[in-house]
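Collaborator request, handled under Task 6.
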Amino acid sequence: MNLTPREFVFAVLVFFVVIEAIRVKMKIVIIGQREYEANQISALGWGAFAVCLALILATQEGDGLEAGKYTIPLICGLTFVDPVMGEVKRAKKGMKAAIIVGLSVSYTIWMASVTLFSTPLIAAIFLAPLTVAGEIPRVSWIDDNATMILFPLIPILLVHWIF
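Structure tokens returned to the collaborator:
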């Protein structure tokens, strides 16, 4: 089987969608999931979907790690900003404090990607707060694990040719 990297990620995405559909249909709650996730797409499912979508759709030009100039900070944003903001909120510091801490972490990730992966500076400045904005909406039909990637991914897809 000779798959390109994007084809492989697409196959992983299809696998996750099928497994998640079976899990929801059978009302299975996996260790670490919340009880209400038995009846809806889980945070894990949403996160896997968004990460795969980013890997499939985001521009990946350049050699080596430079090809990840958008995907690496997108995924690191979900990996680090989400739990840090969650911990600040759990410590009862409030949403304002969570946003400030989240912005600090997000800008650290995006600015590091400018140096390490040649992410355009203007993109980093604009996309870092969109990562944090993905944590803010409280809606039941999509998890923040998806919006933290999708909010910055959409502008990347629309205007990547500018950067």
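The cover message to the collaborator said: "Residues 18 and 146 are 17 Å apart (CA to CA). The chain has one domain: 5-159. Please let us know whether this matches your experimental observations."
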